[in-house]
Here is the input.
Amino acid sequence: MQITSYGAAGQVTGSCHLLEVAGKQILLDCGMIQGSSRAEAHNRDRFAFDVKKIDAVILSHAHIDHSGRLPVLHTAGYQGPIYTHEASFDLCKVLLKDSAYIHEKEAEWQNRKRERKGMEPVSPLYSQQDVENTLEQFEPLQYNTPLKLADGVTVTLHDAGHILGSAIVELTLSENGVNRTLVFSGDLGQRNSPILRDYTRLKHADLVLMESTYGDRDHRDPAHTFAEVSEIVEAINSKPGNVLIPAFSVGRSQLILYMFAKYFDEWDLGRWQIFLDSPMAIEATRIYARHKNLYDDDARAFEMENDGLMRLPNLIYSQRSEQSMQINRISSGAIIIAGSGMCTGGRIRHHLKHNVWRNDCHVVITGYQAYGTIGRDLVEGKSHIRLWGEAIKVGATIHTIGGLSAHAGQSDLLHWYDGFENRPRVLLVHGEERGMTPLLAELKSRFNAPAEVAEQGRTYRF
Here is the structure.
């Protein structure tokens, strides 16, 4: 039995790990590398393993940095099953199609430039049809329901509390009379975060593949986060230009709408026009409404009392691009929630172009911003950002909310590991060095855990 990390080893994005056991090869996630254009160029690299030897894929959740290269895997020759939670399957229908649309549009844009230069055209990373073909390979699962994949390999998904349908992957393995349990954390959510239930704690594993995105720090607790958001809302209400909220279409957008609905009167939000300017976020919001059984107790009670979890009287769904362009005619009084969350693509870039140079504009950053992204430039206080090759002054006030992260902070990561009674071996993945190093030290000092940082391409036997 052995596992090799081919992505999200020493970095946050591109989750991809290959398990080999009992003559079978099982891929855990197949995510897209995100960040700078140089980093994203590696999405076109050939896989470092033989795709046709893969027997099954298990997807922890729908976020593109975990699912985004599945169509590439398909076009490279993988024809087997893709197992994931049924809510993740619903979200992948939206996320992967949107990803394909973006790749097709980027290829069109590049090819117009290449044609003028007499250069050969490029193909998109994958097409809408590639996604349709890939979705046919999905086999939805439920939480806490073991499934035998092959002799010696059984998978059980557990709630990870990260986004709708996110899963901790538990694999019970047997080979030559040796029994082992591998647990892949996927991405873990914060305890007591809104809408979703807390992550599941497991009692036994031999090897834990564990995320470490925020292994160096904790997020603010809910009370502090509420106070922080309230202060930002007060600042926005006192200086009402337009408000831009770059938000991931799945998870973060729904959390923001839920908070707006819950504190609508207290935050005096009736004075604004609120736009959800993302077809993907709109569809994801509808998917959240279809999976009420995954809500925590507070969210279920609020949903029943208000006839909807995210109902707002002044919320406008901006589905078509023409509707999005009309928003840019508004100079004041608009709250615009748009993707992408790190400003690497999507409609938020157009809204930044029209607003970020204004002194009365506000930009509210609600989540992690990877190195090399426009979102990171804004957080770091850069005086200019670059959009489509043009340098644009940052005149807007930048607000950062740390407590809304969908990822567990250090204390929650340690709490989750502490659920294992036998103190299993740990390989840290899905993190940068600054997050992994402190978490590694805490795992060793508190629990005497046999822990190390997974290296790209290195094989670990267990």
About this structure: The chain has two domains: 2-217+407-461, 222-400. The two ends are 6 Å apart (CA to CA). Residues 222-400 form a domain with the Rossmann fold fold (CATH 3.40.50.10890). The chain has a mean pLDDT of 95.
